[in-house]
Amino acid sequence: MFLNVDANEYLLNDIDTYMIQLHKFLLSYSDNQQDFWDELEKNIEKYNLSATFMGRDVPKETRKEFVKTYFAKYNKESYIKLRTDFNQNKENMMLLYMLLIYGFNRMLRFNANGDFNLPVGNVDFNKNVVNALNAYFDYVKDRDIQFFNMDYQDFINKIEPTKNDFIYLDPPYLITFSEYNKLWDEDSEMRLIHFLDEIDERGIRFAVSNILWHRTRYNGTFNEWAQQYNIVRIQSNYISYHDNTEKDSYEVLVKNY
Ligand SMILES: C[S@@+](CC[C@H](N)C(=O)[O-])C[C@H]1O[C@@H](n2cnc3c(N)ncnc32)[C@H](O)[C@@H]1O
Question: Of the candidates 80, 65, 79, which has an alpha carbon nearest to the alpha carbon of residue 123?
Answer without folding.
Answer: 79
